[in-house]
Structure formats: C-alpha cells, structure tokens
Design brief:
Number of domains: 3
Number of helices: 9
Strand content: under 5%
Order of helices and strands: HHHHHHHHH
Distance between the termini: 43 Å
Helix content: over 70%
Number of strands: 0
Radius of gyration: 21 Å
Largest sheet: none
Length: 211
C-alpha cells in the first residue's frame, strides 16, 4: 500500500511539473519557478496531494538533490574574489530588508516579538532558486552572478547562526537564563564540531577517496 502511494504521488507530481513547465516555457519563466508553482497548485490550490510521510520523504530527497546540484555549480575560489563585496552587500541587504519588514509588520499591528520573527524571515532568499536561474541565463560566472551567490552564501551563514540560536532556546517550560545559556552553548558547540568535521573531511578524507 505504501509503495502504491509513493508511485501515485510521484506520478501526479511528475505530470504536474511537466504540464506547468511546458506552460512556463511559453512565457520564459525558469523551470525552478515552474516547479514551485506546480507544488502550490497540487497542495494549497487544489488539494490533490496532502501532507503525509511519503510526501515529506519525497520533498526531503528533492531538497537534498537540489542542494547537491547547486554545490556542483558553486566555486569557492571565484566567490573569494568578491568576498568583501559580498559581505558588505549581504549585510546591507539583510539589514535593510529586516528593518523594512519589521516596520511593515508593526504598521499592520503585529506584536513586537512576532514582528521581529517576520523581519528575520524576510532577510533571507532562496540560494537554490537564484543559482538555478543564474545557471539557466548563463550568468553564474559573470561578476554580478558571483556577487549574488556570495550574498546568498552570507545569508546562509546567518541562517545557520539564527537556527542554532533558536535551537538553543528550545525547551519545555519557562525560560531561565541558565537554561538559555546552556542550550545556546550546546547548539553552538555542536555546530562548531560539525563544521570542523566537514572541513577535515573536505581536506583530508574526500580528496584521496575521489582520486
């Protein structure tokens, strides 16, 4: 039964993606945007697919594959050339977007805490979508394309910090300063250990294995 549900869901998604992509090409809309539109039509718009364990599994594999493809397209050596520009532009962009989003949320009467959450969420863009659009246009290696990717990577670093902070705050009951400090410490130490393992693997383990 689970196998039938998996095949049925995959079939519906593939047919929807094909149909929307063909329609999108007529108006020169990138495929990645068409795929997002297909997902919106299948889920919130018409309810043809409901959230289930199978759908979550497919979506997680899809995100993994997209991130893998994005990683193949990125060159850290080229991004280093625009590192300073990317950090400055990324900081200005995130700060301005967060400020504008927070003020707009406040203007609609959203409480302060919720307005801060909205402001932080609006700071970030989708690296996958932008990289695939630049790739399709052939501008990934152009100077503005490298700067855009650099800004996106700066955003990704900030996302990791924000999610780590949120994970450190997570816990049952009322928050005490000691519990908050302990949770944040665990989260950031875990992030540091994971980053160290990834760096060590990229330097010492993966190159010999690939050769």
């Amino acid at each position: 039964m689970a196998e039938f549900e998996l095949l049925n869901s995959l079939g519906i998604m593939l047919l929807a993606a094909l149909g929307v992509t063909l329609a999108a090409r007529a108006v020169r809309v990138p495929n990645i945007v068409a795929y997002i539109g297909a997902g919106l039509l299948l889920g919130p718009a018409f309810g043809l697919l409901e959230v289930s364990h199978t759908i979550e599994l497919i979506s997680e594999f899809g995100i993994i594959l997209l991130l893998f493809l994005v990683g193949l397209e990125l060159s850290l050596d080229k991004i280093k050339e625009v590192g300073t520009t990317a950090f400055v532009a990324g900081g200005v962009q995130m700060g301005g977007t967060a400020l504008g989003g927070g003020l707009l949320a406040g203007a609609f009467g959203i409480p302060v805490v919720e307005a801060i959450v909205v402001a932080v969420a609006l700071m970030f863009s989708s690296t996958v979508v932008v990289v695939k659009m630049l790739e399709k246009r052939g501008d990934l290696d152009a100077p503005y394309g490298q700067i855009a990717v650099g800004v996106l990577l700066v955003q990704d670093l900030v996302v990791v910090m924000v999610l780590t902070f949120v994970a450190g705050l997570a816990g049952p009951g009322a928050l005490a300063w000691a519990d908050v400090a302990w949770g944040l410490g665990q989260a950031f130490v875990g992030m540091g250990l994971l980053g160290g393992l990834i760096a060590a693997a990229a330097r010492y383990v993966l190159p010999p294995a690939i050769r």
